[in-house]
């Protein structure tokens, strides 16, 4: 069997890495560097794109990064890409409390993957999102806001569902599938060009 294509994921988050390994490990040889890259303020797309450029300069080659957000319907999409800082300062209970005065508990979990072939190349973005609602914390507090996000049409939060179920339906899995399809197509094209040479 042909060697698996290598893919370098730059992230400071070990839980993201574990999920990426589960989602991509069968198809790619996933390597990683743990750097907490500086993130500008802006939309998730802008953050992912800039993070990716910095990561490529650091790695001096092809890399991908991802930015994840959680937006509340009642707050017009906030905290969105700033969820990490909200979570660190007010915790899960604080996030639930933020919506106390609203009947609208809807939320969207989203993931933006940015991939580049190297420094100087414009990153390509792959997005995934899942609609759900914010509930009182349920399940292990292992990964971020998993215990308070309940995807629509499920009775579990991300934290109480089997990890394989989360990986089958999550915002991350949707974005990863798009990245995978893109890279596989690219590889096919390169192989067919090599045959023609
Ligand atoms: O419950 C969760 N389920 C998930 O599926 C998920 N994915 C990310 N997160 C958290 O949301 C913030 C994103 O911020 P973020 O994208 O900047 O990540 P990060 O700074 O931790 O790593 P990175 O930027 O180095 O890759 C951080 O607090 C992450 O822990 C998640 N929480
Ligand atoms: Mg980050």
General shape = globular
What is the number of helices?
A: 5
Largest sheet: 5 strands, antiparallel
For this structure, the CATH topology is: Maf protein
Strands across the major sheet, in which order? 4-3-5-6-7
Order of helices and strands: EHEHEEHEEEHH
Q: State the domain count.
A: 1
Task: Give a written overview of the molecule.
The chain has 197 residues and is of the alpha+beta class. It has one domain (5-196): Maf protein, CATH 3.90.950. The protein contains five helices and seven strands, in the order E-H-E-H-E-E-H-E-E-E-H-H. The protein has helices at residues 14-24, 44-59, 83-98, 163-169, 171-196, and strands at 5-10, 28-33, 63-72, 79-80, 106-116, 124-134, 149-151. Helix 1 packs across helix 5 (171-196). The mean pLDDT is 95. The chain binds the ligand O=c1[nH]c(=O)c2ncn([C@@H]3O[C@H](COP(=O)(O)OP(=O)(O)OP(=O)(O)O)[C@@H](O)[C@H]3O)c2[nH]1 and magnesium ion (MG). The site of the ligand O=c1[nH]c(=O)c2ncn([C@@H]3O[C@H](COP(=O)(O)OP(=O)(O)OP(=O)(O)O)[C@@H](O)[C@H]3O)c2[nH]1 has 18 residues, from strand 3 and helix 3.
